[in-house]
Amino acid sequence: MPYDLLHLIGNTPLVASRKLWVTPGVALYFKLEGQNPGGSVKDRPALNMIRAALERGDIDQSTKLIEATSGNTGIALAMIARLYGLEIELVMPENATRERVQTMRAYGARVTLTPAGEGIEGARDYTEKMVRSRGYVMLDQFSNPDNWKAHYLTTGPEIWKDTHGTVTHFVSSMGTTGTIMGTSRYLKEQYPGVCIVGVQPDSQASIPGIRKWPEAYLPRIYDPGQVDRIMEVSEAEARTMARALASEEGIFAGMSSGGATAAALRLAAELEEGVIVSIVCDRGDRYLSSDLFG
After folding, report:
1. Which candidate in 70, 173, 256, 278 is catalytic?
2. What pLDDT is attached to residue 2?
3. Secretion signal: which residues (predicted)?
4. Is residue 64 annotated as a catalytic residue, yes or no?
């Protein structure tokens, strides 16, 4: 039976670790968000933000959308905006991998690159300036509750269902924080004792997709009460574990997934029993022009 492409967003596989963690008593599962049609977990909030804005009448086909992104959200928005006939400009630092820029343009989006030294903060500043001065509309993944609600409605229920209600720990890298906010809310409603673990880079690390935000740029959707523990990872850990996911588990993913996996393995080593679910947020093919797998 044929499907509408948007119906393929979500219901991603949950697979058990076969080699990186095999100790009895503690199960480690990876949720493979790269299986979404746009290749990342960001398909979920991109769809929910656009669909909800259209349903409320906040945007229509005459709206000029703009959004700052480090990559995955931009790809998802480019794909979904095109399916809804919407014009979108995506703003990202100029050191983004070539694959990401090319993919957004392939979907028909306009891509604006801001100075690498300004990071994603510079892209956000540029986007807000365009909203103020040029009449653009920003979905604003950093402040939009439709971001985390996507995970409350889909990611959390899928994890609960696929673990048969046995999940004890959920591990997610934190960028916009939408994934961890929405999934936490749902899982804690089902089992208040679930431990929600957020993953951030240490002070020396630069890991695409994971951020420790300056106070002025902290996502407004972030509620620290939804996170029980924060674990920091180094850039070396994230790189090493992204490569290990591919070579040991057959899971091809990026650095933020490597960082989450490193944290999940450290967590697993602390436990005598439990069921850990760790998010693998995208596919590794959008990092091939970087030195991650070189």
Report:
1. 256
2. 65
3. none
4. no
